[in-house]
Design goal:
By secondary structure, the protein is of the alpha/beta class. It has one domain: 5-stranded Propeller (L-arginine/glycine Amidinotransferase, Chain A). It has six helices and 15 strands. It has a three-stranded mixed β-sheet with strand order 2-1-15, covered by helices on one side. The radius of gyration is 17 Å and the shape is globular. The N and C termini lie close together (8 Å). The model has no long low-confidence stretch (mean pLDDT 97). The structure holds citrulline. Citrulline binds next to loops. The site of citrulline has 18 residues, from loops.
Length: 259
């Protein structure tokens, strides 16, 4: 993303949401609370100037509120992923028609490639692609080749050494210009050396999954040390409660597609 975001797409969490995949060990999410938090999230995107398309809940796929994993959207085009968790593969077909309204021609990751959008960090038109338990090398390279055709450079980052990170963006976010938020575990990786790195304070790793939207930075509520760092960056910072999504291993970025 080099210009500004004008659109976002989100999908409401369904009543089946608590049946999704999770390793968090934080208990079951409360659906009504999740819905409220989701509405506040959409409002925050609107406040940043985005037109938000809200898709109805899809009860068949409990994790489908995490739309970010199912597509990569850039100014030049969109691509449907092939999620690495079998229970999420069907989300692709459900998202296709919604996305085609905006992007009539969609590229698509082909087997044996797997790719979750949570592993894809757009750092201002330069992409970092995580190879993880969800995204395999084949999927990562398919995406890198597609991005190259659109004029974007990609770097693969193998995060399999850090089983605590579900996705690359569980530990990394672009903060605008030359700045990245990174968890300490990733901070010294050579691929990030050209960037100014804001290290996420100890005990607040979850806050790394923050979201730069135009001039604003959306961060998870409840992480005061990271919030203080974020405020030092100078732009508006908005703290959002995403406690119910955290219970299902999801964060701020996973809840929307933006372009
Ligand atoms: C999953 O395990 O796939 C979901 N429960 C959470 C996905 C979170 N997505 C993301 O970080 N991009």
């Amino acid at each position: 993303m080099i210009g500004r975001f004008n659109h976002a797409m989100v999908r409401r969490p369904g009543k089946s949401f608590p049946a999704g995949l999770t390793t968090a060990g934080l208990g079951a999410p409360d659906w009504a609370r999740a819905l409220e938090q989701h509405m506040a999230y959409s409002r925050a995107l609107e406040k940043c100037g985005l037109r938000v398309t809200v898709l109805e809940a899809d009860e068949q796929f409990p994790d489908s509120t995490f739309v970010e994993d199912v597509a990569i959207v850039t100014e030049g085009g969109a691509l449907l992923t092939r999620p690495g968790a079998e229970s999420r593969l069907g989300e692709v077909g459900a998202l296709r028609p919604a996305l085609q309204k905006f992007f009539p021609t969609l590229a698509e990751i082909q087997p044996p490639g797997t790719l979750d959008g949570g592993d894809v960090c757009d750092a201002g038109g330069q992409y970092f692609i995580g190879v993880s338990a969800r995204t395999n090398e084949d999927g990562a390279w398919q995406l890198a080749r597609w991005l190259e055709k659109l004029g974007h450079h990609s770097t693969l980052v193998d995060i399999r050494r850090w089983p605590g990170l579900l996705h690359l963006k569980s530990g990394l976010a672009w903060l605008g210009r030359n700045k990245l938020a990174v968890v300490v575990a990733l901070a010294e990786e050579r691929v990030f050396h050209d960037y100014e790195r804001v290290r996420v304070p100890a005990g607040e790793d979850y806050a790394a999954n923050c979201l730069r939207v135009n001039d604003a930075l959306l961060i998870a509520r409840g992480f005061p040390k990271f919030a203080a760092e974020a405020k030092k960056l100078g732009g508006p910072v908005s703290e959002l409660d995403v406690s119910e999504f955290r219970k299902m291993d999801g964060g701020l970025s996973c809840l929307s597609l933006r372009w």
